[in-house]
Design a protein that fits this description.
Blueprint: E1 6-8, E2 12-14, E3 46-51, H1 61-68, H2 71-74, E4 77-82, H3 90-95, E5 101-104, H4 106-114, E6 119-123, E7 131-136, E8 151-154, H5 161-169, E9 179-182, H6 188-191, E10 198-201, H7 205-210, E11 213-214, E12 219-220, E13 226-230, H8 231-234, E14 242-246, H9 247-250, H10 253-275, H11 277-287, H12 293-307, H13 319-331, H14 347-358
Parallel strand pairs: 3-4, 3-5, 8-9
Antiparallel strand pairs: 1-2, 5-14, 6-14, 7-10, 7-13, 11-12
Helix pairs in contact: 1-10, 1-11, 10-11, 10-14, 11-12
């Protein structure tokens, strides 16, 4: 959702972005997925393509770790990871048969599904939204209602849904009460005070501000210099990064088994990034060295917060969060109507998580504690 590089704003600024039914989901695993977890790779690996929604960064660390650590190969899979970009819509790449799995935010994928893409959420990796709207503290903005008469930034491309829902909940007319500004995939407009509020992800753009030097003090900006509106706290948060597959492809029991193996290895990758934090950062940097180690370290810590703890086990849908996403999406006319019950399924993720748990792997992260990560100048 949201191409990396350096933006000069009188200082070097990393420009990278974010920036990825109604009804009961299937909960009983098909017989084809009951085989025990693979312990060694078969002679012939099954080629699999995974489409990401953005460039290589810690947002996708678990997938890169699963490749690096041989988790996919141990499941008999030869996984190729394709980076995303502004003009790449991962769920459409999936629906067109150019990928076997895709990572996408739930509301974006549901728009594509409503338009005819027969795709299904099989693994809800992120349990929480990481979207924020950030302002300078001296702006006086402390709630969505304070955006009235202000210049409010958003990336668009489907990343604006939570923001628009928050404005609607505050009684604001997006056509009359605020000036919507299309912001680039960085925080330059906020840093230059060209907008009063800017969209940011906890794991990316928020840190981009803190990594810059305040010209008034000669020191890095501090959290106290900013006001952050977190959509989770105001009730308009929507589910984000999930693993999607084609519904028709999953009708084949053999493909259900492949999906379970893919999820099992993917979950192991994310668990590795939780428990072997520094090694995981190094894997990300090895695959995408565009961003500095400091920034990628901050990002992985924030990404882990979006995954852990996972009350039902990693990747298993929390129906209450799904229902909230659908409620926000339909009320804001992101989608015309709630999707049918086949828009997500839990059986494949449940099977994958149960296999890992049976092997003694912690799939819930109940005792997970975030790291304390120090911001570094320029994210280096």
């Amino acid at each position: 959702m949201k191409v990396a590089g350096k933006l000069v704003i009188g200082l070097a600024l990393i420009a990278v972005l974010v920036a990825a039914c109604g009804g009961a989901a299937t909960t009983q695993a098909p017989a084809a997925t009951q085989a025990p977890a693979a312990t060694s790779a078969p002679a012939a690996l099954i080629p699999i393509t995974l489409q990401l929604q953005w460039v290589t960064q810690s947002q996708f660390a678990g997938y890169y770790a699963a490749v690096d650590q041989g988790f996919y190969k141990a499941e008999g899979l030869d996984v190729t990871i394709k980076e995303g970009a502004v003009d790449i819509v991962p769920q459409q790449v999936l629906a067109s048969g150019q990928a076997d799995f895709a990572v996408s935010w739930v509301p974006k994928a549901l728009v594509s599904r409503e338009e005819g893409a027969k795709i299904v959420d099989i693994g809800q990796v992120f349990q929480r939204s990481g979207t924020l709207e950030v302002s300078w503290k001296d702006s006086g903005i402390t709630s969505p209602a304070d955006w009235k008469g202000k210049k409010v930034g958003t990336w668009g491309y489907g990343n604006e849904f939570e923001l628009y829902a928050a404005m609607s909940a505050a009684g604001l007319d997006t056509q009359k009460d605020v000036t919507i500004i299309q912001q680039p995939f960085d925080m330059s407009l906020l840093l230059n005070r060209e907008v009063d509020a800017a969209e940011a992800m906890t794991y990316n753009e928020y840190a981009q501000v803190l990594e810059q030097t305040d010209p008034k003090t000669g020191k890095l900006y501090q959290p106290g210099d900013l006001t952050v509106i977190d959509f989770k706290k105001i009730g308009t948060a929507m589910l984000q990064d999930a693993v999607w597959a084609q519904e028709d492809w999953l009708a084949d029991a053999k493909n259900q088994d492949i999906a379970v193996r893919f999820l099992r290895a993917t979950f192991k990758g994310w668990i590795f990034c939780r428990d072997s934090f520094e090694a995981c950062v190094d894997i990300v940097l090895k695959n995408g060295p565009t961003l500095g180690k400091g920034h990628m370290t901050w990002q992985l810590n924030e990404i882990n917060k979006l995954i852990w703890p996972s009350a039902n086990g990693i990747g298993v849908m929390d129906k209450a969060l799904w229902d909230q996403t659908i409620s926000v999406a339909t009320s804001q006319k992101v989608i015309k109507a709630a999707p049918d019950a086949n828009a997500y399924r839990t059986d494949l993720a449940e099977k994958a998580a149960a296999d890992l748990a049976a092997a003694g792997v912690d799939v819930k992260g109940t005792s997970y504690t975030p790291r304390v990560v120090e911001i570094t100048p320029g994210g280096e």
